[in-house]
Amino acid sequence: MLSKKLKWQLLFEEKKQLEDLLQSSNSVVYKNVFGEILLVKSDGDYYAFKNKCPHQNKSLENCKVADGNVICPWHQYQFSCETGRGHGLHVEKYPLKFEKDSVYIGKEAWTIFG
Ligand code: FES
């Protein structure tokens, strides 16, 4: 039976790599096996999104992060870091998992094996 399952991929061997990337900025575009993702730091927490604004499918590179929201650099639509939602739209969000100092990123994928 076809079902969706969360697939985890190693993003960083050490959490420090993520912390270093987001040391001088609250957001950065990073390429991984899922394509371009937007890594965000907000109030000490880390988030990952697809690097595509749902308004006009433009890159979120150079977005601002304020009050728990990602603010698109093109038309300033705001999307919640917690949910990815805003303006009746939503940015695809990927869960992050911290395990034994490594960082994993998850993405739902269809599977026939359950
Ligand atoms: S493209 Fe992001 S708000 Fe318009």
Summarize the model shown.
The protein has 114 residues and is mainly beta.
Q: Can you describe what's shown?
A:
With about 110 residues, this protein is mainly beta. The protein has one domain: Rieske [2Fe-2S] iron-sulphur domain (Rieske Iron-sulfur Protein), CATH 2.102.10.10. The protein contains 1 helix and 12 strands. The strands form 4 sheets. Strands 2-3-4-10 form a 4-stranded antiparallel sheet, with no helix packed on it. A 3-stranded antiparallel sheet has the order 1-12-11. FE2/S2 (inorganic) cluster binds near residues 53, 55 and 58. FE2/S2 (inorganic) cluster binds next to loops.
What are its keywords?
single chain; 114 residues; mainly beta; Rieske Iron-sulfur Protein; 3-stranded antiparallel β-sheet; 12 strands; globular; binds FE2/S2 (inorganic) cluster
Blueprint (SSEs and pairs):
Elements: E1 3-12, H1 15-21, E2 27-32, E3 35-42, E4 45-50, E5 64-66, E6 69-71, E7 78-80, E8 85-86, E9 89-90, E10 93-94, E11 96-99, E12 102-111
Antiparallel strand pairs: 1-12, 2-3, 3-4, 4-10, 5-6, 6-7, 8-9, 11-12
Bound molecules: FE2/S2 (inorganic) cluster.
